[in-house]
Amino acid sequence: MDIGKVLVLDDSMKNSKYSLIKSKIRRSELKPLIKHKFPLINKSQRALVHRKSILFANLCCLFANLVLLFANLCCLFAILNLLFANCYLPYVISYLS
Fold it and tell me: Which of 41, 77, 80, 96 would bridge with 45, disulfide CB 3.0–4.6 Å?
């Protein structure tokens, strides 16, 4: 089996005469070539990498949620500040006058 005729993974050779359309391949022929070109890790390591990527995504979401929580607390504080300023400001002004 000629690897050049069967599989081209490089984008620069996409339109060459050795493209994937040149020869019909079966899935069983393609799988070892991809493993040779991109060596895979075993299933337990793959699961560990998957768990680490999920953990990283969850940490990013947690950080984004903390930022949004801080922004919401700032908005709440500003709204409460305006409410109390409108309620008590006339009394403070009249008291100081």
Answer: 41
pLDDT on residue 1:
45
Largest CA distance in the chain: 98
Q: pLDDT of 37-95, one tens digit each?
A: 545 556 666 666 677 788 888 999 999 999 999 999 999 998 888 888 777 767 777 77
Compute the chain's Rg from CA coordinates.
Answer: 31
Query: 32: which 2 tokens?
Result: 């070892």
Alpha helices, DSSP H only, in 18-42?
27-37
Ranges of each domain in the chain: 1-40, 41-97
Are 38 and 65 contacting, i.e. CB atoms less than 8 angstroms apart? Answer: no
* Contact (CB, 8 A) for 30 and 6: yes
Within 10 angstroms of residue 7's Cβ, the number of other Cβ atoms is 19
Residue carrying the six token digits 């391949």: 25
Whether residue 26 contacts residue 1, with contact meaning beta carbons closer than 8 Å, is answered with no
